Structures are given as structure tokens and as C-alpha cells.
Amino acid sequence: MFKTKKIILITGGSGALGSNIRKLVKCHAPDSKELDITDYKKCVNAVGKYNPDIVIHCAGWTDVLAAEKEKTKCWSVNVSGTENMVRASKGKRFIYISTHYVFDGMTGNYKEDDVPNPVNFYSLTKLIGEAIVVQYQNTLIIRTGFKKDGSWEYEKAFVDQWTCSDFSSERAPDIIKASLMTTLKGVIHISGKRKTIYDLARRTSPNVGKISIESARVKLPRDVSLNSSKWKKLLSKQSRVKK
Ligand SMILES: NC(=O)c1ccc[n+]([C@@H]2O[C@H](COP(=O)([O-])OP(=O)(O)OC[C@H]3O[C@@H](n4cnc5c(N)ncnc54)[C@H](OP(=O)(O)O)[C@@H]3O)[C@@H](O)[C@H]2O)c1
Prior knowledge:
- The protein is α/β, with parallel strands linked by helices.
- Helices cover 38% and strands 16% of the residues.
- The chain has eight helices and eleven strands.
- The strands form four sheets. A five-stranded parallel sheet has the order 1-2-3-4-9, with helices on both faces. Strands 5-8 form a two-stranded parallel ribbon. A two-stranded parallel ribbon has the order 6-11.
- The longest helix has 18 residues, at 71-88.
- The radius of gyration is 17 Å and the shape is globular.
- The model has no long low-confidence stretch (mean pLDDT 97).
- The structure holds NADP nicotinamide-adenine-dinucleotide phosphate.
- NADP nicotinamide-adenine-dinucleotide phosphate binds at residues 11-12, 14-18, 31-32, 35-38, 58-60, 62, 77, 81, 97, 99, 126, 144-147.
């Protein structure tokens, strides 16, 4: 459990990442009825009520396939919702959970200053969310990848998609650490080791089947592995300071 005197407000607290963050640090996590991020007034009310030092914005439309058909709904959560939340946060430290999917996956090993080039609508909305957040002071954009804990959600997993994802419980501690590093701003990549989605799936579901990315019903980036050396350097600097 992380100990901090900072007051933390989290959106998306019922989600894969948010539920793990809630287990590790004391935070206010209003549900999506009380804090519907598509409603600006509700965002203002929540920030006023909880008076946070830090807002960790995990809420999002995350169904990549459905986003292609439900563009308006995906946009209203990922773009308008993010704008509402960062605006309502009024300069308080704001953490935006972005994704390795902002890249086109042609090369992998992406650094923070590599050029994004989203290949599907979900990824586009996450990148536009970044473009909004970066205009506000005191913000941090975390690009990362993770999957919901537990057994694999599907019968098969991609053998030809490379990722830096781990399970959300493995990613949550670093997200909290970065959120609490109050001088860290801008964009940071936080990820695990490069692996195929199939290898990740086999960790919890050894009998998962194999499938090619070519059979996906939405265009997906092939290699979205992130280069996290900036983050690793920061972590080792922090541990040297504590010794
Ligand atoms: N999963 C990944 O592979 C991945 C990778 C990189 C980055 N991300 C990003 O990380 C964040 C968290 O992802 P996740 O996988 O943990 O998400 P998730 O499990 O799909 O959960 C989504 C969360 O967003 C909330 N939400 C949706 N619409 C909302 C609205 N209008 N107002 C308030 N809350 C709303 C949901 O609340 P209710 O369901 O309770 O309504 C839920 O708590 C997202 O921003 C996502 O884009 C995800």
C-alpha cells in the first residue's frame, strides 16, 4: 500500500486499471453515475467535493472494435470527457492514462518523442485526448499497455502482435509512483518487456489458441512495444536518493 498525504481523485475506478489502483492507494473513486465525465458540471462538482491534489484520469471508452461503429460515443468519453475532466481540475496535478496504440506499430520500441500515427478510431481519440491534456499546466501523460487480470478473455490470442503490456495489477504500482512524482510532467512511457500477445495470454491461460492479427475485424498496430528507458532511469534515480 502506498502512503501519501495527497488527496487523490480517480476516474474509471471500476475498470481494470482503476480497480487495481484503488487497492494500492487511498483515493476517492466516484462511480460513473456520480462522475459521468461526459457531463462537465459533474466533473466540476466532483473536483469541488473531493478537492484533490492529484486527479488520475483512468475512465475511457476501451472497446477498440466497437469504437469503429460507435464513433460518437467513443469520442464523447475519450475526447470530450477528457477535456471536461482536465478543465474541471483547474491546474491540479492531472494524470492522463494514454496508450501504446497511439503508434502505428511499424517499428516498435517507441520513445516519448516518436511520432504517433493511430491506425484505428479508438487510438485516434486517445491521441486527441493527449493533445488536449498537454495544453494544460501540471499534467502528465502516461503511455502504457495492460490487459485485464485473470484468464484470457478470448479463446485465441495474436501470435503476430508485439506489445509491452502486462496485466493491470502489474502496471498499477508504477502508475501510482509516477502520479506521486509531482515534478514529473509531459509524456512518459511505462511498460513491461516486449512480447507477443499470445505469450502474455499464456501466462494465465496456458491453453489459449493462436490467431493472426490479419484476422482482426479492426485494424490493429503490429508492434506497439514502448521504450521505457526514461522511466527506468527515473526509478533508479529515486531509489538512489532514498538510500
Ligand atoms: N486496457 C488496455 O489495454 C489499455 C491500454 C493502455 C491504456 N488504456 C487506457 O487506460 C484507461 C483505463 O483502461 P481500463 O482497461 O482499465 O478500462 P476499462 O476496464 O474498460 O474501464 C473503463 C472505465 O471507464 C469508466 N467510464 C466509461 N465511460 C465513462 C463515463 N462517461 N464517465 C465516467 N467513467 C466512465 C468505466 O466506468 P463504468 O464501467 O463503471 O461505467 C470504467 O471504470 C483508459 O483510458 C484506456 O484508454 C487501456
